[in-house]
Fold:
Amino acid sequence: MFFRDLETDRLFLKNISSDDREFVFAQFTNGRVNQYLFDAEPLTDMQDADEIIDFYVQPEPRAQHRWIIVRKENGSKIGTCGFHCWNNSIGYSDVGYDLYPDFWGKGYMYEAMQSVLTFARNDMKIKQINACIYPENIKSVKLAKKCGFTFNGQMKDEFFNGEKYSHNIMVLDFTAV
Structure:
């Protein structure tokens, strides 16, 4: 298996699995977690959680992967992060991440992203990563900048809840580092 579990000082990043269905459901029905996730509707039932997990556990090679972020201290699951739209032939991927609100501002996502970005560069041989971030999600924009992403424009996307919404396009170019 290409994608493997990762580890940081305070965290385990475990590959998503069917054992995570209750967490995935709780995470993506939480109003604060979903506040800036405008690319998907909040989950409504466990089948929605199963569909997310099924998407990320397709046999390899695949264009997406997700890790569950787990605190070493007590084994609590606190968020997810991972890749989608990975194009191995050109070394490009999108990245996404979410964290349960109780853990915002404590450096957990920065720690997780450092491990994930190192994996992307060294193991996936990614040259460029995009993060599409809702402009009002100030903490996420700051995190992306701290991780080395730079602003590369804004896009209008599909309708969500009857309205057009925009995202900042943040880019991390490993060839420029």
Strands lie at 6-7, 11-15, 65-71, 77-87, 92-99, 128-133, 150-160, 163-173.
